[in-house]
TrEMBL record:
Signal peptide: none annotated. This is Aldo/keto reductase. The active site is at Y47 (proton donor). Keywords: NADP, Oxidoreductase. Belongs to the aldo/keto reductase family. Substrate binds at H105. It catalyses: hydroxyacetone + NADP(+) = methylglyoxal + NADPH + H(+). InterPro entries: AKR, Aldo/ket_reductase_CS, NAD(P)_OxRdtase_dom_sf, NADP_OxRdtase_dom.
Length: 276
């Protein structure tokens, strides 16, 4: 297992994502993922499965200090008061007294960012989370969020895979001593059939998906949270720590990015204004 060290706190770099899993499936798969060896789990208020994730963690038998858990506040709860109340509700559903990382799920200009970050800081100071961060923030808003938060931000969780160049975001995060968590890291499974990734994988006896996840793990300051509804696939995703990509392999994968590489349609998300 590869860990990212953030100000003395170790975070498993490969986590288990739960987007699009309902409560029952999340409970089953989180428990299965724990058996496989995952110790980093990711959920969100907007996923509507925090209760199932909590059940899965209880069923796993893992001690609370033996796993790292992230959840996210959706933008309709960004007002002060609403945010704090929503986190209390998330903890009730998870049946926990704190999470390890709490993120603002998507930027919006409907509430001043200063107000939202003050509320996020308060939740951290109240002990409801160990760390705080952001998600889907572009570079200009990363800078603004860092400047407005009294407590250091740990993570920006964004879509990242071989077809989407996030080098500017990653460079910006590194300048702030922050980490990037890649969601949709296997591009909704399309990397499995990519000829470049298949050829690289053939050298190591690995699939295009495993090569992609290894590519992410070998980048400084990067974590990834692939999701799966299948124990077999979750196990295969975790089986990436017994090989290492060459510099030439890494460069070839970097060259797969394209202007229309985004897989997640952001049109459903709130609009934001840098002046907000």
């Amino acid at each position: 297992m590869i860990y990212r060290n953030w100000q003395g706190i170790e975070i498993p770099a490969l986590g288990f994502g739960t987007y699009e899993l309902n409560n029952d499936d999340a409970a089953t798969m989180v428990a299965e993922a724990a058996k496989i060896g995952y110790r980093h789990f990711d959920t969100a208020q907007m996923y509507h499965n925090e209760e199932g994730v909590g059940r899965g963690l209880k069923a796993s038998g893992l001690a609370r200090d033996d796993y790292f858990l992230t959840t996210k506040v959706w933008y309709d709860k960004f007002q002060s008061g609403d945010l704090q109340t929503s986190v209390v509700e998330s903890l009730r559903k998870l049946d926990l007294d704190h999470v390890d990382l709490l993120l603002l799920h998507w930027p919006t200009d409907e509430v001043p960012l200063s107000e939202t970050l003050a509320a996020l800081n308060e939740v951290k100071n109240l002990g409801m989370t160990r760390l705080i961060g952001i998600s889907n923030f572009p570079t200009a808003l990363i800078d603004k969020a860092v400047s407005l938060s009294n407590i250091p931000l740990t993570v920006n969780q964004v879509e990242y895979h071989p077809y989407l160049d996030q080098s500017r975001v990653l460079e910006n995060l590194r300048s702030h001593d922050m980490l990037l968590t890649a969601y949709c890291p296997i591009a909704r499974g399309t990397v499995l059939h990519d000829p470049v990734l298949k050829d690289i994988g053939a050298k190591y006896g690995k699939s295009g998906i495993q090569v992609t996840l290894r590519w992410l793990m070998q980048q400084d300051s990067v974590m990834a949270i692939p999701k799966s509804g299948s124990p077999k696939n979750a196990a295969a995703n975790f089986n990436i720590f017994d090989f290492e990509l060459s510099d030439e392999d890494m460069a070839a994968i970097n060259n797969l990015s394209k202007p229309d590489g985004r897989m997640i349609d952001p049109s459903f998300a709130p609009k934001w204004d840098e002046a907000a």
